[in-house]
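Please check what follows.
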Amino acid sequence: MRLFIAAILATTAVPALAAPVNYSGLALAPAGDRIATVETSGGKAKIVVRAVKTGAVLTTLDPCAATCGYSGLTFASDGTLAFLARDRAKGEVTLDIVEGGLVRAVATVRGIAQSPRFSPDGKRIALLVTIGAAKEAGAAQAGVRQVGEIGEKNDAQQLAVFDRAATLAADAVKPVSPAGRYVYEYDWTPDGSGFVVTSVLGNGDANWWVATLDHIDAATGAVRTIAKPTTQLNFPRVSPDGKAVAYIGGLMSDFGSVGGDVFTVPITGGTPVNITDGAKATATAIDWTKGGLRATLLHGDASEIVAVTDKGYGAPLFARPASFAAGDGRAAFSDDGKTVATVVQDWTHAPAIFAGPATAPKQLTHENDGVAPAVSARSISWTNEGFTSQGWLLAPVGADPARKAPMITVVHGGPAAANVPNFVERGGVAELIRAGFYVFLPNPRGSYGQGEAFTAANKRDFGGGDLRDILTGIDAVEKVAPIDDARLGLTGGSYGGFMAMWANTQTNRFKAIVASAGLSNWISYYGTNGIDQWMLPFFGKTLYEDYDAYKAPSAIYFMKNAKTPTFIYVGERDIEVPPTQSVEYWHALKDQGVPTSLVIYPEEGHGIRNPVNALDVQKRTIAWFEKYLGKAK
C-alpha cells in the first residue's frame, strides 16, 4: 500500500504560519553547471534556473501565470530545458521547451503526462502519456465510479516520442508503445534506438507488483522482455555503454515507495544479479553516470549518497540525518557523476537546495533559513527479538522536560516504507505538536533503512513482530523523555491504519486511536480492493490458497478484545483500501459498545487532499485525542 502516514499527517493543502519556500522537480544539467526547480511560495509556483557554483538565479519562467502547474523538468545534452505545464481546467498537459529564452510548445496531451526525457543526442523528447485519462495516475488517487461492466476499460500509460522541433496538437499525439501495456518508468538506451522500461499488461494500478523489465523499440514499439524479477523493481537505468541495466529490486508495498538492493542484468536478457546483497541499508534511488553507478540510501537514521560497484556500496560521499529529493530520484547527477544536486530538509530545517561536488555539496538557497522549527527531534534506536529498529521522537519546542506529557505514535504506511525527516510545518504532525503532544515515528521491522532482510521480516507476520517492535520502542522513548504512559495515543494510515485497528485488539496500552484508510478484514479486503497483487509478495499465496494466513491478522476476528475509543476516516473513492473496511470495523466497535466515529469524505481517494476535508480531519483528530488523553497544554 502507498507510503502514506495518514492524510491528516501528509496533507500540504492547509495553510500554515510562516510557510517556507518549497522546491520540487529538481533537475541538474548534464554539464553540472545549472539547476532547475519548481519553486512554490505563497501558493504560487514558478520555474527557477540557478547556477551551481554561486546559486545565483539565471532565469525565472512562468508562462502559464496562474492557470497551470509545472513538473517534469529535464535538460538535454546541450543544456536545453524542457518541462510540463498542466492546465487542469482544460484537461491538458503541454510539453514545453525553452529555446533562445522563449518557451515553445512541442506537443499538447489531452489527458495526463509525466517524465519527459531528451534522447541522448538531444533531438527527441520521450514522454509518458495517458490520453483521455479517467483518473489521476496511481492507485492512491481517487478511483472512477464502479458502475457498468467492471474491469473492461483501464487507463493506459504509454510512451510517446516527439521531435524537439515539432509543434503537435493533441489529436496528433500517437504513443509508440503498444496499447494494453502500462509503462511505469523508462530510460533511453545510449544509441537512442529504444528504451528500457518497467511495464505490465493490463491494469496499471493493480499490477505493478508483477511488472517486468522490458525493452521497447523507439521506432516500432516492439517489446522484448529482458527479465522477470522475483522482486518488485524501480529505477531502470542503462549503462553508458548500453550493455547492461541496473535497477532497484526488493519487497516494495507500492509504486513510488522505493527500497531494496541494486541489481544488474545484461540488456540482452538474463538472470539479474544482486550486487549489494546483504547490505544493511536500503537503496532508494539510482543513476548510471559515465563516472559509474550512483545511489541514494537510507541507512539507519541517515540518507546517504554513494558510489556502487559490483562489490557493493562504497563509503558515503555525502550523508546526513535528513531527506533528499530531486525530480527523478532522490538526487540528480551530472553526466560524469562528479556533481550532485538535491533538496535537503530535516525535522528542524526547512528545504534548501544543495549542489556541488558529490563529496561536498553546499547549500545554495537560503530563503528558508529564518523559518523557525516547531519541534525538537531525536533519533531513537532499540533492539527487540534480535532486530535493531530506529525511530524519531518529536517534542514541542520548549517543552518542559520535567512535565509528563501525552504522546501519539504514528505508524507509517507500506509496510515497506519508513518515517524519514521532513520539516514540520503544516499538516497533522504540526497540529499535534502545536497542541502539546509528543510524537513518536517508529521504523519497526518491515521498514526501510536496515537492509532487505529487515524489510522482509514481517512477511506473513503483519501486526506481529512489527507491533512488538513498536511497543518496545515506546518503552525506549519513555526512558529518555517525560512521556505519560497512561496517556498514549496511536494513529496511522493505510498499513498504519491497519496497525491502528489491529493494535486495538491486541493491547490496551493506547487510550485513544485514530485510524485512516485502515484494513480490518484481510479476507473481505482481498476481494474488494483494486490492487490485490500487492499482497502476494507478503502472504506468498492468494487468499483462496491460504485462507488462514489472511484471517490471522484480521482485526475483525478479535473485536471482543477491542476497548480503545477509535476515530476512523477514509475516502469515498479509495481503491487501495475501500471504505467498506472502515465501515466493517466501525460497525464492530459500535456492537461492542466502544466509543467510535466514522467519517467518509466524498470524492477522496487513498488520502485526503481537498483542503476543506483535510482541515476537518485535523480538527477531529485533535479533538479525539484531547477528549480521551486530556489536553496536552
Remarks:
- Residues 611-629 form the longest helix (19 residues).
- The chain is about 15% helix and 40% strand.
- The first strand starts at residue 22 and ends at 28.
